[in-house]
Amino acid sequence: MITKEQALAGREEGIQLPEKHFVNQNNLSAPYPENMQQAMFGLGCFWGAEKQFWQTEGVYITLVGYSAGYTPNPTYQEVCSGMTCHNEVVYVVYNPDKVSYEALLKLFWESHNPTQGMRQGNDRGTQYRSGIYTYSKEQNELALKSKEHYQTILREAALGDITSEIIEATDFYVAEEYHQQYLAKNAGGYCGLGGTGLLYK
After folding, report:
1. For 9, which of 40, 80, 151, 198 is 20 to 30 Å away at the CA?
2. What is the pTM of this model?
């Protein structure tokens, strides 16, 4: 992991959002319907990660982008260089009356292997690290509680220690349009996600 002083300078202007979600046609830009809440996760390649969440009932929109680093408004190439410290993340807007944050956490833990450090499967680099980025004290507490639960399960199965970072959410920088809902636009696209093979309880 690089330091802030080593990071690329970035730019003031970000990437413009498409108007609609490619899958469900909901508006990608705020304001969102009343009562919506936000969440953010990193679990490897954001193409496959995003699909896990847009398929979940109660999720209003998903966006892929970059967060938890230093460089403002980075490009995909810059993030892949390792010189921004950003992670590939999925930003989720959801209706808590239809899906709980706990359910989103369960999906997070069970959709990837959270013990692999700076990689996920064959994808290697700091941008593929596992992370939960919280927007409230309640989210942070629930994330830490869920980590403890899954760590117990993983240790019992001799599958190692969780390396996922759980930190307060920082700026979310939207990724280029072609990355958004990529696996819906490219049905044969690569998805490097893989769970641990456990049936979690």
Report:
1. 40
2. 0.94
